[in-house]
Every structure is written in C-alpha cells, then in structure tokens.
Amino acid sequence: MRLKPPMTMMDFFRKSEGTWFSQRTVHHFDTTKEQSGDSNIIIEVLENNDSRIQKVCQEQNIDPNLAVGGATFLWQDNLDDPNPNSDWAAILVDIPDGDNKNQGRFLRNKGYVEGIPVVCQYNFSHDGVLTIATEYEKNQGTERCWFVTDDFRVRVSTVKMMNGVNLMSYSSERRCISNEALEKIATKYK
Fold it and tell me: What local confidence, expressed as pLDDT, does residue 174 receive?
C-alpha cells in the first residue's frame, strides 16, 4: 500500500500521534562539537475546544476561533522514566490559512530554540514534505519533516544565528508499538 502523506497540519498531528523513538545527530558549525543521542517523542492530538489551546491563543492575543486544533509534544530521554520533564514539552496550535489548508501558522507556547512563545509558518509541498520556518528574537529556524512510511519519519533542521548557520540536525524517528498493540499480537498467536 502506498503512503498517503499528510497535507494539512492536523493530518500531520494525527499521523504523528503516539510515541516515537528518535535518533538525532546535531552538527555545530561554530565549533567542532557534534552531538548524537536517542530520545522519545510523545505526541497527543488536541481538539480545538481543548482548554490548553484556548490558553495558548489567549496568551498570544490570537482569536481562539481561528484554531482548528493542535497537539502536545513531549521529549523524554527514556520511556522507563515515569515522570517526563515538563521543561521538554510544548503545545502547538494550528491556524491554517483560510483559502489554502496546506499552509498556515502554528502557535507554540514554548519555542524549541529559545524557550519563549513563538509563531511558526508552515507549508506542505505537493509530495507531503512539511517545512516549518520560525523567527525567534535572535535566531531563525527551518525544519523539514516527512513520512517515509506510516511508522518512520525523518526530520532535518537548521538554526541560523545572526552570523550565519549555527547548527544542523538530522533525526530519524520510528513509531513505538504500544503495550495494547503488543498484547493484541500476543493474544492472536496464543
């Protein structure tokens, strides 16, 4: 079966819902420092009437009626940790363009590069590649993400400081199978 890529942000959030194992490499261009590591990303879809969406809109002086939904993203070093660090969490609120649902903006209660509320611009290309552009106070970020299969996706990003590109990252992400799904499979073969 051919992959049907998401073409709207809410479709992207829905296709991303669940837990992902992420392997990431970061190249810093202003030093010889490179980093790599593993983490988990836990994504939950939020409907437009969720109080968290309303709160983010109010904090950024955006009419909550423009929001069509959103998602929470939580980064976690290890799934064995029962209490993920809320410092590594973000709420994203989708506000698509009225005429073209393949593009728009989303609000973040906390930016990835700078930990401040931020508005990102996004668009989907004809083949389903999501491009996100974010203007921070002192940085610019560009991220691209696409699904290779329903359970594997790739993200690449750059962060540009005032003096040029500061870092580039590459992440490959695999969907983690839930305990419920594992139990279903085990029951099927008993």
Answer: 96
